[in-house]
Design goal:
- The protein has 249 residues and is of the alpha/beta class.
- Helix content is 46%, strand content 16%.
- The chain has a single domain, classed as TIM Barrel.
- The protein has 11 helices and 8 strands.
- Strands 1-2-3-4-5-6-7-8 form an 8-stranded parallel β-barrel, surrounded by 7 helices.
- It binds 1,3-dihydroxyacetonephosphate (13P).
- Residues 9, 95, 167, 172-173, 210-213, 231-235 line the site of 1,3-dihydroxyacetonephosphate.
Length: 249
Protein backbone atom coordinates (compact mmCIF):
# COMPACT_ATOMS: atom_id res chain seq x y z
CA UNK A 1 0.00 0.00 0.00
CA UNK A 2 1.39 3.39 -0.96
CA UNK A 3 1.03 6.10 1.67
CA UNK A 4 -0.74 9.24 0.60
CA UNK A 5 1.31 12.44 0.47
CA UNK A 6 -0.20 15.92 0.54
CA UNK A 7 2.14 18.87 -0.06
CA UNK A 8 1.22 22.54 -0.11
CA UNK A 9 2.91 24.76 -2.68
CA UNK A 10 2.65 28.28 -1.35
CA UNK A 11 4.06 29.76 -4.57
CA UNK A 12 5.06 33.42 -4.06
CA UNK A 13 2.68 34.13 -1.19
CA UNK A 14 3.03 34.88 2.49
CA UNK A 15 5.02 36.90 4.97
CA UNK A 16 6.56 36.14 8.33
CA UNK A 17 3.45 36.87 10.37
CA UNK A 18 0.97 35.06 8.12
CA UNK A 19 3.25 32.07 7.69
CA UNK A 20 3.66 31.67 11.41
CA UNK A 21 -0.08 31.47 11.94
CA UNK A 22 -0.45 28.97 9.11
CA UNK A 23 2.48 26.77 10.16
CA UNK A 24 1.36 26.69 13.79
CA UNK A 25 -2.20 25.82 12.78
CA UNK A 26 -1.01 23.00 10.50
CA UNK A 27 1.31 21.57 13.13
CA UNK A 28 -1.46 21.64 15.74
CA UNK A 29 -4.06 20.04 13.49
CA UNK A 30 -1.94 17.44 11.69
CA UNK A 31 0.74 16.32 14.11
CA UNK A 32 -1.21 13.34 15.44
CA UNK A 33 -2.49 12.29 11.98
CA UNK A 34 -0.37 9.27 11.20
CA UNK A 35 -2.29 7.91 8.23
CA UNK A 36 -0.57 10.00 5.56
CA UNK A 37 2.42 12.31 5.04
CA UNK A 38 2.21 16.09 4.82
CA UNK A 39 4.48 18.93 3.81
CA UNK A 40 4.74 22.52 2.63
CA UNK A 41 6.98 24.00 -0.06
CA UNK A 42 7.69 27.58 0.94
CA UNK A 43 9.53 30.49 -0.72
CA UNK A 44 13.30 30.28 -0.04
CA UNK A 45 13.47 33.08 2.57
CA UNK A 46 10.98 31.24 4.78
CA UNK A 47 12.73 27.88 4.89
CA UNK A 48 14.27 28.78 8.21
CA UNK A 49 10.87 29.74 9.57
CA UNK A 50 9.35 26.47 8.37
CA UNK A 51 12.22 24.55 9.93
CA UNK A 52 11.76 26.34 13.25
CA UNK A 53 8.01 25.81 13.28
CA UNK A 54 7.90 22.21 12.05
CA UNK A 55 10.98 20.52 13.49
CA UNK A 56 9.81 17.77 15.79
CA UNK A 57 6.38 17.57 14.13
CA UNK A 58 5.24 15.04 11.54
CA UNK A 59 5.19 17.73 8.85
CA UNK A 60 8.01 18.20 6.38
CA UNK A 61 9.02 21.27 4.40
CA UNK A 62 10.74 21.98 1.16
CA UNK A 63 11.43 24.46 -1.62
CA UNK A 64 9.69 25.26 -4.89
CA UNK A 65 12.78 25.13 -7.06
CA UNK A 66 16.47 24.20 -6.84
CA UNK A 67 19.57 24.99 -8.84
CA UNK A 68 21.01 22.33 -11.11
CA UNK A 69 24.47 23.44 -9.97
CA UNK A 70 26.21 22.39 -6.77
CA UNK A 71 27.84 25.77 -6.09
CA UNK A 72 29.63 28.63 -7.78
CA UNK A 73 29.05 31.86 -9.67
CA UNK A 74 25.28 31.50 -10.24
CA UNK A 75 23.85 34.72 -8.87
CA UNK A 76 20.40 34.31 -7.42
CA UNK A 77 20.42 30.52 -7.40
CA UNK A 78 19.92 28.22 -4.40
CA UNK A 79 21.60 24.82 -4.25
CA UNK A 80 20.25 21.52 -3.00
CA UNK A 81 22.91 21.49 -0.28
CA UNK A 82 21.60 24.84 0.96
CA UNK A 83 18.10 23.39 1.14
CA UNK A 84 19.52 20.52 3.16
CA UNK A 85 21.06 23.04 5.56
CA UNK A 86 17.52 24.09 6.42
CA UNK A 87 16.23 20.56 6.84
CA UNK A 88 14.22 20.56 3.62
CA UNK A 89 12.83 17.21 2.56
CA UNK A 90 11.31 18.16 -0.80
CA UNK A 91 12.19 20.28 -3.81
CA UNK A 92 9.67 20.86 -6.58
CA UNK A 93 11.26 20.51 -10.00
CA UNK A 94 9.72 21.40 -13.31
CA UNK A 95 6.61 23.11 -11.98
CA UNK A 96 4.64 24.30 -15.00
CA UNK A 97 5.10 27.92 -13.89
CA UNK A 98 8.88 27.42 -14.01
CA UNK A 99 8.59 25.76 -17.40
CA UNK A 100 6.27 28.39 -18.88
CA UNK A 101 7.50 31.61 -17.26
CA UNK A 102 11.22 30.90 -16.78
CA UNK A 103 11.95 28.82 -19.83
CA UNK A 104 12.86 25.62 -18.03
CA UNK A 105 13.03 22.85 -20.60
CA UNK A 106 13.10 19.10 -20.03
CA UNK A 107 16.88 19.06 -20.00
CA UNK A 108 17.17 21.69 -17.26
CA UNK A 109 14.40 20.06 -15.25
CA UNK A 110 16.26 16.76 -15.44
CA UNK A 111 19.48 18.41 -14.21
CA UNK A 112 17.63 19.98 -11.30
CA UNK A 113 16.08 16.64 -10.48
CA UNK A 114 19.49 14.99 -10.42
CA UNK A 115 20.98 17.75 -8.24
CA UNK A 116 18.14 17.44 -5.73
CA UNK A 117 18.13 13.66 -5.60
CA UNK A 118 21.93 13.41 -5.32
CA UNK A 119 21.83 15.77 -2.34
CA UNK A 120 19.33 13.49 -0.61
CA UNK A 121 16.23 15.59 -1.18
CA UNK A 122 13.03 14.11 -2.55
CA UNK A 123 12.40 15.80 -5.90
CA UNK A 124 8.72 16.29 -6.68
CA UNK A 125 8.77 16.15 -10.48
CA UNK A 126 5.85 18.11 -11.94
CA UNK A 127 4.49 17.04 -15.30
CA UNK A 128 1.35 17.96 -17.20
CA UNK A 129 -0.13 19.14 -20.44
CA UNK A 130 -1.55 22.52 -21.46
CA UNK A 131 -5.15 22.95 -22.59
CA UNK A 132 -4.05 23.09 -26.22
CA UNK A 133 -2.10 19.88 -25.79
CA UNK A 134 -5.06 18.12 -24.18
CA UNK A 135 -7.40 19.31 -26.92
CA UNK A 136 -4.82 18.26 -29.48
CA UNK A 137 -4.85 14.74 -28.08
CA UNK A 138 -1.18 14.75 -27.08
CA UNK A 139 -1.51 14.60 -23.28
CA UNK A 140 0.20 11.22 -23.03
CA UNK A 141 2.94 12.17 -25.45
CA UNK A 142 3.73 15.33 -23.48
CA UNK A 143 3.75 13.60 -20.11
CA UNK A 144 5.83 10.73 -21.49
CA UNK A 145 8.40 13.16 -22.89
CA UNK A 146 8.62 15.04 -19.58
CA UNK A 147 9.04 11.79 -17.63
CA UNK A 148 11.45 10.08 -20.00
CA UNK A 149 13.81 13.08 -20.03
CA UNK A 150 14.23 12.74 -16.28
CA UNK A 151 14.40 8.95 -16.11
CA UNK A 152 17.09 8.96 -18.81
CA UNK A 153 19.19 11.63 -17.14
CA UNK A 154 18.75 10.44 -13.57
CA UNK A 155 18.75 6.67 -14.00
CA UNK A 156 16.54 4.40 -11.98
CA UNK A 157 18.53 4.57 -8.75
CA UNK A 158 17.95 8.30 -8.42
CA UNK A 159 14.46 8.17 -9.91
CA UNK A 160 13.53 5.78 -7.11
CA UNK A 161 13.72 8.78 -4.74
CA UNK A 162 11.17 10.76 -6.69
CA UNK A 163 7.60 11.79 -6.25
CA UNK A 164 5.75 12.65 -9.46
CA UNK A 165 3.03 15.30 -9.48
CA UNK A 166 0.61 15.29 -12.39
CA UNK A 167 -0.52 18.88 -12.77
CA UNK A 168 -2.53 19.60 -15.91
CA UNK A 169 -1.70 23.22 -16.68
CA UNK A 170 -5.33 24.03 -17.50
CA UNK A 171 -6.37 23.01 -13.97
CA UNK A 172 -3.81 25.10 -12.08
CA UNK A 173 -5.32 28.09 -10.34
CA UNK A 174 -8.33 28.01 -12.64
CA UNK A 175 -10.88 26.29 -10.41
CA UNK A 176 -11.21 23.72 -13.21
CA UNK A 177 -10.18 20.48 -11.54
CA UNK A 178 -9.57 17.41 -13.66
CA UNK A 179 -12.31 14.91 -12.95
CA UNK A 180 -11.17 11.94 -10.85
CA UNK A 181 -11.48 9.79 -14.00
CA UNK A 182 -9.44 12.19 -16.15
CA UNK A 183 -6.72 12.39 -13.53
CA UNK A 184 -6.75 8.64 -12.87
CA UNK A 185 -6.26 7.91 -16.56
CA UNK A 186 -3.08 10.00 -16.72
CA UNK A 187 -1.82 8.69 -13.38
CA UNK A 188 -2.24 5.12 -14.62
CA UNK A 189 -0.41 6.08 -17.81
CA UNK A 190 2.48 7.55 -15.78
CA UNK A 191 2.73 4.42 -13.65
CA UNK A 192 2.77 2.19 -16.73
CA UNK A 193 5.41 4.35 -18.35
CA UNK A 194 7.65 3.99 -15.31
CA UNK A 195 6.84 0.28 -15.20
CA UNK A 196 8.47 -0.09 -18.60
CA UNK A 197 11.72 0.68 -16.79
CA UNK A 198 10.87 -1.03 -13.48
CA UNK A 199 7.59 -2.56 -12.38
CA UNK A 200 8.69 -2.58 -8.76
CA UNK A 201 9.61 1.10 -8.80
CA UNK A 202 6.36 1.96 -10.55
CA UNK A 203 4.31 0.17 -7.91
CA UNK A 204 6.07 2.10 -5.14
CA UNK A 205 6.01 5.48 -6.91
CA UNK A 206 3.95 8.22 -5.26
CA UNK A 207 2.00 10.11 -7.93
CA UNK A 208 0.25 13.23 -6.67
CA UNK A 209 -2.45 15.15 -8.45
CA UNK A 210 -2.34 18.96 -8.53
CA UNK A 211 -4.67 21.54 -10.02
CA UNK A 212 -7.53 23.25 -8.16
CA UNK A 213 -7.68 20.63 -5.40
CA UNK A 214 -9.99 21.79 -2.62
CA UNK A 215 -11.52 20.23 0.46
CA UNK A 216 -14.68 19.70 -1.59
CA UNK A 217 -13.06 17.54 -4.29
CA UNK A 218 -10.03 16.00 -2.54
CA UNK A 219 -11.67 12.82 -1.27
CA UNK A 220 -12.99 11.79 -4.71
CA UNK A 221 -9.60 12.41 -6.31
CA UNK A 222 -7.65 10.59 -3.58
CA UNK A 223 -10.00 7.61 -3.81
CA UNK A 224 -8.73 6.75 -7.29
CA UNK A 225 -6.32 3.81 -7.31
CA UNK A 226 -3.33 5.64 -8.82
CA UNK A 227 -3.78 9.02 -7.12
CA UNK A 228 -1.50 8.99 -4.10
CA UNK A 229 -2.25 12.42 -2.70
CA UNK A 230 -2.05 15.98 -3.88
CA UNK A 231 0.11 19.00 -4.59
CA UNK A 232 -1.99 21.90 -3.44
CA UNK A 233 -1.60 25.54 -4.48
CA UNK A 234 -4.18 28.14 -3.47
CA UNK A 235 -5.97 25.94 -0.95
CA UNK A 236 -2.73 25.35 0.95
CA UNK A 237 -2.72 29.00 2.05
CA UNK A 238 -5.86 28.59 4.14
CA UNK A 239 -5.26 26.45 7.22
CA UNK A 240 -8.75 24.91 7.53
CA UNK A 241 -8.93 24.15 3.84
CA UNK A 242 -5.49 22.54 3.71
CA UNK A 243 -6.12 20.55 6.89
CA UNK A 244 -9.40 19.28 5.44
CA UNK A 245 -7.57 18.16 2.27
CA UNK A 246 -4.96 16.40 4.41
CA UNK A 247 -7.72 14.67 6.37
CA UNK A 248 -9.20 13.44 3.08
CA UNK A 249 -5.91 11.66 2.46
P1 LIG B 1 -3.79 25.33 -7.45
O1 LIG B 1 -4.10 24.30 -6.38
O2 LIG B 1 -3.86 26.73 -6.93
O3 LIG B 1 -4.58 25.09 -8.68
O4 LIG B 1 -2.25 25.13 -7.85
C1 LIG B 1 -1.79 23.85 -8.12
C2 LIG B 1 -0.31 23.90 -8.20
O5 LIG B 1 0.26 24.48 -9.10
C3 LIG B 1 0.45 23.24 -7.14
O6 LIG B 1 1.79 23.15 -7.45
Amino acid sequence: MRRKLVVGNWKMHGNLAQNQGLLDALAAALNDRTGADFGVCVPFPYLFQAQAALTGTRLSWGAQDVSEHAQGAYTGEVSAAMLNDFGARYALVGHSERRALYGEDDERVAKKFVAAARAGLIPILCVGESLGEREGGVTEAVVARQLDAVIEAAGLDLFARAVVAYEPVWAIGTGKTATPEQAQAVHAFIRERVAQASRELADRLTIQYGGSVKAANAAQLFAMPDIDGGLIGGASLVAEEFVAICMAA
